[in-house]
Amino acid sequence: MIAKCRFVFLSFLFFLLIQSCQEEINIISSVDYDSLEFNDFVEPEFPFINTSLDLRNLGEQFPKINYSSRATAIQLGNQSYMAFDPDLLRWSAVWTGGFVSMTGVAQVSYKDFFNKNDSFPRILGEPMVVSGLYPGWTSYFPNFKDVRTEITEADSLIWGPLNKEYGRYQGMYTVDDRVVVSYLVNETQVYDSPTSKVLDGDTVLTRTIRIENHKDTLYTVLAEMSDKHFLKEEDGVVYIHNPNKKNEVTAISSNSLKMNTHKVHIVKERFVVLSAYPTDETSDMQVSFWKGDSEKSEKIIAKTRIQKIEFPNFKKGGNKYWKDVVYTKGMKAPDSAAYVVDQLTLPMPNPWKRNVRAADIAFFKDGRAALLTFSGDVWIIDNINDDLSKLKWTRYASGFYEAMSVKVHEEQVYVFGREGIVRLLDLNNDGNADYYENVSAGIIQSMDSREWAADMVIAKDGSMYLAKGGGTLAPAFKSIAEKSPKGYRASTVQAGTILKISPDGETTEVYATGLRAPYIGFDVESEFLTASDQQGNYVPATPIYHIEKDDYFGVPPAAHGHPVDYIKRPLVWIPHRIDRSSISQLWLRTEKMGPLNNSMIHFSFGRPGLFSVLLDKHSKVGQAGVSLIEADYPSPVLKGAVHPKDGQVYIAGFNLWGSNSQGISSVTRMRYTGKPYLKPISFQVGEQGLVLSFTEKLDRKAVVDLASFKVKRWNYERTDKYGSGHFKLDGTAGEESLPVLKSYLSKDEKSVLLILPNMTEVMQMELVYNFLTASGQPVKGEFHFTVNDLSALSFDQLGFQDVKIAKNDLQLTSEELLSLQTNKDSASIELGALLFDKFACKGCHSIGTSTEGMYGPPLKGIFGSSRQFIGGAKLTVDDNYLKESILDPKAKIVEGYGEEMPSYSGVLLDNEVQSLVLYLKSL
């Protein structure tokens, strides 16, 4: 009895202890960006970041043309650093003092959320030694020429990794404050780990190298100096004397423990090379770099040579970098519509004062999520349940470079960034990644800020499809480079393409070309691959494409030798005002999302929002339509994934480029509530008109009322201009209105048939509808679709009875069609304000004076102000200039801004243009 009482008492104490611990946990319930303080982008406790490096103009003693589009910049302590170039297997720079300028896109916007004024990162300290653009390692003989063959069309610069015969970067291990770089030289395994230590007050940097048995001599370039310096070799040490600083010397030496295995020496009077001689066993060697007073050199070198070589036990993992856990409480939306958006509160503030800008999300089978941030971190989210009451956030990995895609395949995390595809492995199961494995051997990446590592999907067999950004309007890396017409240029031979990577990562195939800024979607079940593209040069509006091997999509700078006489048509075009900045697609292979089950949705960054994509399954040629899924999002949306347990859609997004939303970042859940969904769930277009189907029974009287529907159509023009106006079928500017001749309700009362005249292939059709369900609920919205193919509609099979339409009844004369195009509304400031909002002008132009997050100049006080344009011209803003800016915005571009606005010629009627002018004059 006493024992039982003691057990009960102890259990009660344990319960109180647990309750006390739970009460002490700080659960974050909201994020106020204005009150947050962030530490610097570079965390001193984590050893590396991936970045690019502009290594030009480091000094006359170093190579003049030098750059690393991929550089792993490593913090060694003691204000000393090294940068490894995985493309060339070289240590591109060794330096002390300051680290790296944080001037890339992700870096400049880290605290200044809308800052897009990026520039190429540079080293901030004093370079000690630098190597040039050639293989960091070779076998048989040293090679000081760039042996890569892929050359950019625009500027003849060479990007990308070495051919496999030279070597292959395998990945990087992290062990506490050290990293171990793993790579093959030819077929020889090499591990390379940099460190730093202070000897007699001077900083000495070292490379500790482990080389497995090899039959040929291997050579690695340690430094390249110009003829401005004097190099001297003495007793296995190379001394580099600076003529401008007579008492300064740079010394490069190797340890003396096994000198028979390697040697540091001078080649061609300018290169410092380490030769590793053939051996039947694994050998460790250490190379030291020191710079200082020449009188101290002998003493320092002697001390470096007696240092014991210690190679870290890297294959078992290291201690955790991030031990703390952050808890947040999400916010469920009321069940006010069929689909509502819940918020998963982001983990800010956190112990590291780290900004969390959600770029992508993926799920493990048990329901945990991997969240990728634009700052280069991977977080794991646990406890994702219905009420989102206690979300558990832990950090898993860091250091990625402008990565925007994360996937979980076979329970392992894959990240696609500018460094390539990385598989993350937790070697000691402590919750932190220890091995950043390089998956692919053939992805080419330039330093061009718009050659984004945009998107990645993974097939069942492990094949990976990648979307690469197509180039830029900004100057090339090489300032003397010629730009393509209208400023658009491709950066590499893989820019603007869809790539296919084999499961083992060894084969890279250019799968499709001719894209500007694609993002992709993939149905794992059917292997149906899609991509959107960004409206701009050569892309007249937002398309969604079905991607098949060897397709070309119309952007000549990204053709890369592909024949350009045939451009594959998109499944659907989406007008600029509906989606001006498109992102990815997602297939909902779930049974828990109601009417959206087993369908595709499309993400719009600019709106922001999600669209239901309806494929016309009866068409002989692919064609589709889109319908907005109405919901409110706290920030722009980028990527999404379906939760394996609850079947709902989880969405990641952050703000930087032009969007109607001013929110900074969010992770949300689009949840199906079971309430009626009053948008189309399928459609079919044919030579007699259009059929739309719904989930609810519809009111017959409202459906057969022809005033419930308005139909327009137009084409776009593909040119090198930014976007396109709207054009009638005869090529003149404008849109054509089509009358609905008759409308019918199907037998099951859930489908609508609209009989339309003069149906033909056309790039864009727009249906605006407003009617009622049988229970009196309003059904209103817009449906945009593309007609690539016209077959006869089978009314009986579609469930429509007593439909008798003669073919002659479907043909109207051009005069009859023209009579439908009139608009008698007068111009007004009020109409201009409505149009300014309708066409999302506020997403790029402030009606005040703010420029933050805006692509276009502010508009307050514009009328009568002075404008200076690119090229030096000036004028005072009047009615004619405002009208020209709306209809032909490329005619005069304000200095300091780019070509980012499409023409509204043919989009707006005369009275609408005048209304916008009146509104702008009123600001």
What structural keywords apply?
elongated, single chain, 8 helices, 923 residues, mainly beta, eight-stranded antiparallel sheet, 8% helix
Describe the overall structure:
Among the domains are: 261 residues, Beta-galactosidase, Chain A, domain 5, CATH 2.70.98; 99 residues, no CATH class; 137 residues, Immunoglobulin-like, CATH 2.60.40.1220; 94 residues, Cytochrome Bc1 Complex, Chain D, domain 2. Helix content is 8%, strand content 35%. The chain is built from eight helices and 54 strands. The strands form ten sheets. A twelve-stranded antiparallel sheet has the order 13-14-15-18-11-10-9-8-28-27-26-25, covered by helices on one side. Helix 6 packs across helix 8 and helix 7 crosses helix 8. The N and C termini lie far apart (85 Å).
Can you lay out the helices and strands and say which pair or pack?
Layout: H1 2-24, E1 27-28, E2 48-54, E3 67-75, E4 80-85, E5 90-96, H2 105-108, E6 126-130, E7 137-139, E8 167-175, E9 178-185, E10 188-199, E11 202-211, E12 218-224, E13 230-234, E14 237-242, E15 245-254, E16 262-267, E17 271-276, E18 283-293, H3 297-305, E19 326-328, E20 339-344, E21 358-363, E22 369-373, E23 378-382, E24 391-397, E25 405-409, E26 412-417, E27 420-425, E28 435-438, E29 453-458, E30 464-468, E31 498-501, E32 508-513, E33 519-523, E34 528-532, E35 542-546, E36 551-552, E37 572-574, E38 582-587, E39 600-604, E40 609-615, E41 624-629, E42 639-642, E43 649-654, E44 665-672, E45 682-686, E46 689-693, H4 700-704, E47 709-714, E48 736-738, E49 742-745, E50 751-755, E51 762-772, E52 778-787, H5 814-818, H6 829-838, E53 866-868, E54 874-876, H7 879-887, H8 910-922
Parallel strand pairs: 1-19, 32-36
Antiparallel strand pairs: 2-3, 3-4, 4-5, 5-6, 7-12, 8-9, 8-28, 9-10, 10-11, 11-18, 12-17, 13-14, 14-15, 15-18, 16-17, 19-24, 20-44, 21-22, 22-23, 23-24, 25-26, 26-27, 27-28, 29-30, 30-31, 31-32, 33-34, 34-35, 35-37, 38-39, 39-40, 40-41, 41-52, 42-43, 43-44, 45-46, 46-50, 47-48, 47-51, 49-50, ...
Helix pairs in contact: 6-8, 7-8
